[in-house]
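quick one, 458 residues, struct below
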Amino acid sequence: MARSIRKALVFLPFILAALWLSAPVDAQDGRRVLVLTVNGAIGPASDDYLGRSLETAVDQGVQLVVIRMDTPGGLDTAMRAMIKDITASPIPIVTYVTPTGARAASAGTYILYASHVAAMTPGTNLGAATPVQMGGGAPDQPADNEGDGEQAPQPSGDSMKQKMVNDAVAYIRGLAELRGRNADWAEKAVREAASLPAHEALEQNVVDIVATGMDDLLKQLHGREVEVLNVTRTLNTEGVTLVEAEPDWRSGLLSVITNPNVAYILMLVGIYGLIFEFSNPGAIVPGTVGAIALLLALYSFQLLPINYAGMALILLGLALMIGEAFAPNFGVLGIGGVIAFVIGSIILMDTRAPGFGIDLSVIGIFAATSALLFMFVISMAFKARGRPVVSGRNQLIGAVGTVVDDFQDKGRVHVHGENWQAHSRVALRKDQRVEITGIDGLTLRVEPLPMSAQEEMS
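---
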């Protein structure tokens, strides 16, 4: 018994150490601040990164989450999903526009307004929150008619723009009222694409804090009261431990494949890979690579705002170019295919959000490559059509072969690189030249060449 106790005591420190390392929360977790970094365009990767990081923060019981932000804007769907995560978070969230020269434009302004605390570094700016699907500018406002004050009717296109603006205004005003910030300027940022530098934003109650760095931010946050899920909480940021949570491999992969240029290339690689596999069954590698690339592209497209008319034009263009390659029609199908391919590629992304367009150089490279490919196939097809037939039943008639072994009546002859069964009315000797005069099924009818012809061929 005593020996068992001694063994247990020997392993006790290791057991305690393992339990301490595996525990998701330690004694200091309540004094930890999770720091996230959101740089670049707001998209599916940003949404995934923020959502999973907030889940981790809740599991670990951290006191505060700080989002360091520098963004030109992004997708409306991703932005709204991130705002839902922020407003539903049981942990106070501070969005901090940093470093100097950074911005929280367009979608970033909405996220800043949604946060429990909005902070900026001197030399940063926010605003220009007009919906980018309209091209980034504010829609034309209807003018008043002189004398009667009635508004002039708007065209249908302006009406659609106005609906989009009104929806965005209502959304950002709701966020401003939720956090007690300047709702009038928020509306101006949407309708007029207005922007503000950090100190003016503080003066106009657009943000809560202007801090020169993380230490200054934590110092100003200490003792501040914030309302989290209808509960007022006082922040205690003195002596806290900062924990960096950089985007992991999953967020990195999602960021790469949801890049419209990458998704576009993956789609074309997938389509060409499958076409090559179907035209050369058993190649395996093109089909495998093509299937993987196409599945990744489809996954990316279901996360991105895709114009299905553009997708249909791309597929139609590829089909026409393939049709031209297999059934040459003086280039009509090929030219039409290239035109459909280019137009579809240009309108494929149904948004003008920064960072979510397909580069024209990428479109040009793939259009030129596809056009050159089908032109090469067409030229090869025409060359093949102009060559004389070198095989087939008719080509064997009149051909000259060589007797393989001595035979009488039936034996074998070598013609066009192959050995054939042959029938002769006279005896033939090995290496004698014969002429094919007919075919019966798979048996050739042969006759010996005259001696003069034999000597000439020798």
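Residues 24-144+155-251 form a domain with the 2-enoyl-CoA Hydratase; Chain A, domain 1 fold (CATH 3.90.226.10).
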